[in-house]
Each structure stands twice: as C-alpha cells, then as structure tokens.
Amino acid sequence: MKELYVNAPAKINLALKVDGLRDDGYHEIKTIFQSISLADRIKLKKRSGGIVVKNSKVELPTDEENLAYQAAEIFFAENNVDGGVEVYIQKNIPIAAGLAGGSTDAAAVLRALYDLYELEYNYSKLRSLLVEIGSDVPFCLEGGTVYAQGRGEILEFLPFIGEKDLLIVTPQLCISTPKIYSLYDKMKGNNTFNFEKLLKNIKKDENINWNLDYKNDLEAPAKKICQDIKDVKNIIKKTAAEFYLMSGSGPTVFAVYNNRSAAEKVAARWPRKNDFVTVVKTIDRY
C-alpha cells in the first residue's frame, strides 16, 4: 500500500461539567463526547523518509506544532519501519471551534499509519500513545457516544444516542481553551447541574430527554469573551430546535432538530453571513 485516504470526524459535547483544578494544572472534567459526520479528509502517502504535513488552511502549522505531525512522530518512534510519510489534510472542520479538529486529525493519522504500513495495533495501546498529544485525542480514535473523565482521557463507551439531525454554527472568532478555563476559575462558576442523571439516561439506552441538565460549564466564560455565542443561541431559540448548546470551549453552537429538513431550512435562512453553518448528523463508533 502506497497511499491511503481517511476521514477524521469532529465531535460535540452533549454536556460538560468542570469539577475543579487538579495538582497537575489541568481541570477535572466530566463530559459526554459525541461524534458527528462533519469530518476532515486526510491523504497519507509513503515517502522514503521524514514527515511532511500539508493542509488546506494556510494559517495552520505544518511542523511539530501540528497535532497530526506529532502523531506521525509517535508512530515512527514506536515502530521500526523503513520510510516516512506525507500527510495532506483537507480541513472541513472549523479551527479552534470546540469540535476537536486538530485532535481528530492526530488520531486519524496515527491509526492510518498503522494501516498504511500494514502493522497490527490495538486501540488500547494507541489511546495511551495519543494522550501525550491532548486530552480529547484518545476519544477521536474510535468516536461514538462516550463518557469521559479525568482530563477527558478516561473513556467509557456508551450506547449510541441514535442518528440525530444537527445544525452546526461556528462564529468566526477563535477561542483559546486555556483562556476559557482560566476565566472559568476566576468566575468561580457553579457546577450544580445533575450530570449523573443525564448520564444515566444515556446508559439506559433510552430516548434522550433533552429536558435534563444537558449543560456546559464553559459556556458562561466563553460568552464573556465571545458575544457571538449569545447572538447565535438567540437566533436558534426562535427556531424549532429540540435542544441547543455550546460545544467544548466554544464558540461552536449545535442544535438538535427532529428531522434534517427542519435543520436545513434554518441553515438556508441563517442571517449571520460570516458564520460557518452546516447540517450534519450524529454518528456511531467508526
């Protein structure tokens, strides 16, 4: 095999609870990750040696700062193979948007390199390698509906919530995740919502009750930095959305509709012309 094409799906957070600052400087969180059909498209091609990363967005790094590059470094450090790789990433996921765009690229590249070089692997080992790159990267290896604890790296696979039609709206402003957490600490955000009750709802493989506390503790500090989040939610509030919430540390907001047509109508009439707007669906483990 000389080359390989793979998809790298984005994620949303159905809920995110922050449980305080840890001794290592990270925050203890509880979250429910959910994969969606929005995905980057990645091409990997064997080369005689070295790592080359290219992508469709000029503002993204192509050196050691790129998470996909770091994943390739890990692969070659772990395996005695004769060769290198050229990676091209077609970016379809907005950057720094709370959708795990860089993390999912890294996970896809590591998994694909094992396939490209026809080496055996197990997901447990790959997840342990990927945690070196970032807290949510291990989740992106297989995706699906997942309960995550710790920094986001301790995973428990949950029953798939089923195929839901979603509107994804990302304002142009990029938000720094560390900055959001820092502001959260200063605001002394309250985390009173009942995460355990909504987790039980999904674990029982029942229809999701969107009236439970599906909330995101990072939304309040994100709104302080990005007024657009509030504006986007106010527009969605006037539509037939069953549920809507900010994903991750923002600024992306997702909304759940009872059919694709309803979501597409909202997307077609979206009044803010500079936002990234698309209609996607939730997907199971891949």
TrEMBL record:
Transmembrane segments: none annotated. It comes from Halanaerobium hydrogeniformans. GO terms for molecular function: 4-(cytidine 5'-diphospho)-2-C-methyl-D-erythritol kinase activity; ATP binding. This is 4-diphosphocytidyl-2-C-methyl-D-erythritol kinase. It catalyses: 4-CDP-2-C-methyl-D-erythritol + ATP = 4-CDP-2-C-methyl-D-erythritol 2-phosphate + ADP + H(+). Its EC number is 2.7.1.148. PANTHER family: 4-DIPHOSPHOCYTIDYL-2-C-METHYL-D-ERYTHRITOL KINASE, CHLOROPLASTIC. Coiled coil: none annotated. Residues 199-273 form the GHMP kinase C-terminal domain. Pathway: Isoprenoid biosynthesis; isopentenyl diphosphate biosynthesis via DXP pathway; isopentenyl diphosphate from 1-deoxy-D-xylulose 5-phosphate: step 3/6. The lineage of its organism: Bacteria, Bacillati, Bacillota, Clostridia, Halanaerobiales. GO terms for biological process: isopentenyl diphosphate biosynthetic process, methylerythritol 4-phosphate pathway; terpenoid biosynthetic process. Residues 66-144 form the GHMP kinase N-terminal domain.
